[in-house]
Structure formats: structure tokens, C-alpha cells
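Key result, reporting period 2: structure in, sequence out.
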């Protein structure tokens, strides 16, 4: 007769584990069902992020402009030094030829002086250091050798200066490339954000920007501004002629500008050469810390790091190239996005 065994009952521990696992699974399912899908940033949020990226791009742009200006300056200085070295070498060759002619004349008249022989076979610097031989030279020979020595020293100094400037130029070019990459990266990131918007949202943003450009193309008169005169007036008039011209980083006109590109171009039209970057422009002329004391045509600077500059237009407004995606336009100083730091009267 077969025996029948009762099925083994699950232990209390096993039952507890299984129950806990089942409860966790139910909770996870409920949470997954109730979790809200990740929300795509809306037009307003995207615009705020893009504006911030454009501001960062403008900061990098001014650094880029500074590196580019330094590069151009170094290139000119190096070219000048190299020209000087070439002319100096020609002069040195002539001096040596002259001393050689003197030696030839000496030979024809009875033989070459031992001191001249020494010069022709060794470095004249080393020779001149041997003061004991100077009494063997004629006054004419001494003068010729000293001229050669001076010219050699000048050439050595200029070559050393050119070498240092070439190193500086290489470092500046590296910095220029980094800043250009940084600007392009910020602009690219901004564009990627804009691409997340729907076609309707993009159209709405574009319409807002067009309205801003149109409304700022003509100043809202809030009283009679101090009239611009002299070179400041001429610079301001030049900038006015560029209203509606697009902002492009690194541009100095005439078909596009960045902020300091516009101000430097405008003053150049008035016959005044000012530095290329906003940071450098802040260090010229007379600073004006009171907004009420500003006159039309004064340079006005914004943000703590002075990365934005425009021309004062009167009535609390400036004429400037704002940022990527905008055009040269008037704008209230209160809407720039950064604090007014000071003005500069050129």
C-alpha cells in the first residue's frame, strides 16, 4: 500500500520574502503608471536659456576679439623687426666690406697690419675685447670695428626680440582658436535648443524679435537729449547709418558688427582711432559714472566684466549691436540685461 506524504509547506521566511517582492513590484508599477512624462521646455524657458548662451557667447567674443587684435599687432611688429634685421644685415655687410677694403689698401702699401689679419680671421667682438691690441690699430680702423660691433649687437637684440614675439604669436593663435571654438560652441548649443521648439513656437519667437527690432529702430522720445557734437556726434551719426545691420561675432563692418566692432568703426568714421575690444575701450577718455551726465556719442559699458558696449543715444537709451540674432538698434539701458557700469567720453 502506497504511502502518501503531505506537501512541504513553505517556510515563514520564504513567504515573507515573496510577499515583500510582490508588494514592491506592485508599487513600482503604480509609480510608473502615475509618473508624469518629462516635459519639454517651453518657448519662454528656451528663450531664457538661449539668451543666456548668447550672453556667454558675447563674453567669449570680446576675448576672441582681443586675441585677434593682439595677433594682428604682433604680426606687424614682427614684420617691422624682420625688415630692420634685413636692412641691418646689409649695413653690417657694407661695414665689413669697408674694413676689407682698408686691409687691401694696407697690403698694397706695405702689408696687412697684424690686427687687421686678426679681425679677418676671427670675431671682431672677441678682437675688440683684447684692449692690448687697440694701440696697433689706426683711428680709422678702430671706428670701423666699433661700428661693426654695435651693429652686431643691435642685430642680435632684434633677432632675440623677434624670436620672443614669434613665441607670443604662436600662443596668441592658440588662444584665438580656443575662443573661436568657445563662441561657436555656445551658438551651436543655442541653436540646438531652438531646434527643440515646434514650428509654431519658432515663428512666435521670430515675430517677437522682429517687433523688437522694428520698435527700436526709431527712438521713443522722452525729452530733448543733449545734442551730439564734434567727433562724438560724427561717430553717433555713423552708427545711426547702420541701424538694421545684423550682429555677427568678430565683425567690424560695414555689413555686420558685434558690439565693440560697431563702436570702434563708428569712431573711425569720425577720424578717431579707439581700441577694438570693449575692455580696452573702457580704459580711454574720461569715465562718467552718473547716467544723467552722459552725452550723445559717449561710450556706455555694461556687465561687471565690461563685455558689452554701445553709444549713448540720449533719454536713457543706447545705440548698439546687441547679440546674435539681432540687428543694430536703439534700446533702453534698463533692458540690456546687465548693469550699467559707466560711460567714457572719448
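The corresponding designed sequence is given below.
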Amino acid at each position: 500500500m502506497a504511502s502518501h506524504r503531505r506537501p512541504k509547506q513553505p517556510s515563514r521566511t520564504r513567504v515573507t520574502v515573496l510577499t515583500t517582492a510582490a508588494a514592491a513590484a506592485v508599487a513600482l508599477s503604480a509609480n510608473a503608471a502615475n509618473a508624469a512624462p518629462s516635459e519639454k521646455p517651453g518657448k519662454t524657458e528656451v528663450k531664457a536659456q538661449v539668451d543666456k548662451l548668447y550672453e556667454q557667447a558675447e563674453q567669449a567674443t570680446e576675448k576672441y576679439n582681443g586675441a585677434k587684435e593682439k595677433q594682428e599687432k604682433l604680426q606687424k611688429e614682427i614684420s617691422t623687426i624682420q625688415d630692420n634685421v634685413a636692412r641691418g644685415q646689409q649695413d653690417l655687410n657694407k661695414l665689413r666690406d669697408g674694413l676689407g677694403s682698408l686691409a687691401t689698401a694696407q697690403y698694397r702699401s706695405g702689408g696687412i697690419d697684424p690686427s687687421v689679419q686678426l679681425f679677418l680671421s676671427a670675431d671682431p667682438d672677441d678682437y675688440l675685447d683684447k684692449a692690448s691690441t687697440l694701440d696697433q690699430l689706426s683711428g680709422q680702423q678702430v671706428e670701423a670695428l666699433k661700428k661693426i660691433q654695435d651693429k652686431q649687437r643691435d642685430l642680435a637684440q632684434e633677432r632675440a626680440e623677434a624670436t620672443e614675439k614669434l613665441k607670443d604669436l604662436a600662443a596668441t593663435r592658440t588662444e584665438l582658436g580656443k575662443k573661436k571654438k568657445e563662441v561657436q560652441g555656445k551658438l551651436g548649443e543655442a541653436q540646438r535648443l531652438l531646434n527643440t521648439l515646434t514650428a509654431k513656437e519658432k515663428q512666435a519667437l521670430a515675430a517677437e524679435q522682429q517687433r523688437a527690432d522694428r520698435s527700436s529702430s526709431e527712438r521713443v522720445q522722452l525729452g530733448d537729449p543733449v545734442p551730439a557734437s564734434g567727433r562724438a556726434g560724427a561717430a553717433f551719426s555713423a552708427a545711426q547709418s547702420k541701424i538694421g545691420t545684423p550682429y555677427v561675432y568678430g565683425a567690424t563692418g560695414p555689413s555686420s558688427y558685434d558690439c565693440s566692432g560697431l563702436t570702434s568703426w563708428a569712431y573711425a568714421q569720425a577720424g578717431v582711432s579707439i581700441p577694438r575690444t570693449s575692455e580696452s575701450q573702457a580704459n580711454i577718455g574720461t569715465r562718467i559714472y552718473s547716467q544723467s551726465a552722459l552725452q550723445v556719442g559717449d561710450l556706455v559699458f555694461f556687465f561687471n566684466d565690461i563685455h558689452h558696449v554701445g553709444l549713448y543715444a540720449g533719454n536713457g537709451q543706447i545705440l548698439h549691436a546687441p547679440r546674435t540674432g539681432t540687428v543694430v538698434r536703439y534700446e533702453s539701458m534698463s533692458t540690456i540685461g546687465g548693469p550699467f557700469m559707466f560711460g567714457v567720453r572719448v
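Confidence is low (pLDDT under 50) at residues 1-7, 11-38, 131-135, 220-224. Strands lie at 286-288, 299-302, 308-314, 317-320, 329-332, 340-345. This case is discussed further under Risks and Mitigation.
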